[in-house]
Amino acid sequence: MDRNEHEHVIEVTDLRRVYGGGFEAVRGITFHVKQGEIFALLGTNGAGKTSTVEVLEGLAAPSAGHVRVLGHDPFTERAAVRPRTGVMLQEGGFPSELTVSETTRMWAGCVSGARDPREALALVGLERRADVRVKQLSGGERRRLDLALALLGDPEVLFLDEPTTGLDAEGRRDTWDLVRALRDAGTTVLLTTHYLEEAEGLADRLAILHEGRIAVSGTPAEVTAAQPSRISFELPTGYFPGDLPPFAALGVCGHDVQGRVLRLHTRELQRTATELLLWARRSGLALHGLDARSASLEEAFLTIAREVSAPGEPAEPRKPEHAV
Ligand SMILES: Nc1ncnc2c1ncn2[C@@H]1O[C@H](COP(=O)(O)OP(=O)(O)OP(=O)(O)O)[C@@H](O)[C@H]1O
């Protein structure tokens, strides 16, 4: 591999995208993706993921800021960028009467230096469906066909917009294995996804978008570590949160009560759990519904998603934000 491993293959600087009518869908985001890295863009519905990816794919110009893919402006230098990138859109939109094989061959005719269409189908496990009409494919098989087409040009950069939507668990795992293999061979991958376990298991780094801004970013471990762990249980009859030992002594950094269920937030899960159980034993109490769970990407995502701005009020970026 003669590519520079540390090169920023994708550079996004202060990107803004304003639609006709003045709605600002992307409000100044900055991130970089290194060569041979899988970067995931996560976000609530309407957060601006597709609006961002479309600019990277050269389908739209930035309203402000700038974007580079492989060192070029993907919009004004489309001819230089497009042959080196593979794009898997959310909706493939193939003619449904063509077979899988015909579709792949037709697409290969539009790609310079395309790999053997049969090889692309084999990569996504569709070789046995080559003679089936596209309209007869399941939703998951169509996603795999979308991916096969994106891989035809053996791209250096792959844009995957929700690549595993509609796939069953096995198909999803197969796609993850394929994306990892492509990354290991040097391909740079930018993907959007709604599946948090997909981002957690697949991405080297990720950014969570919210209302057009990057709310948090970093490696999955960094983003997760910024969240507290949780312990919840039913308050024993006649007990209130104030009857527990002082929260500071338990290492608790926050709490909430829903009905009789007390939820403690902590950054020291082992210490808090130990102190809580010792207190329960000393007090002769059974803690029903006891549940302790480490911080997760899901927790980070839900925390951000709950921070809904008031109508007309721009969302403020969260601090601290990891460097990307
Ligand atoms: N052509 C358009 N004109 C006006 N507003 C648009 C247009 N396309 C998207 N938007 C708005 O921009 C915002 C961001 O949309 P975008 O599709 O980028 O979000 P997303 O994060 O990809 O969402 P999802 O997860 O639902 O696919 C949304 O509020 C959407 O309604």
Automatic annotation (TrEMBL):
Question: Which residue ranges does the record assign to the ABC transporter domain?
Answer: 10-236
Q: Where in the cell is it found?
A: Cell membrane
Instruction: Name the principal localization, coarsely classed.
Output: membrane
SUPFAM superfamilies according to UniProt: P-loop containing nucleoside triphosphate hydrolases
Q: Which Pfam families match?
A: ABC_tran
Q: Write out the entry's keywords from A to Z.
A: Antibiotic resistance, ATP-binding, Nucleotide-binding, Transport
Q: Which GO terms describe its molecular function?
A: ATP binding
Provide the topology term for how it sits in the membrane.
Answer: Peripheral membrane protein
Presence of the UniProt keyword Metal-binding in the record: no
Protein name as annotated = ABC transporter ATP-binding protein
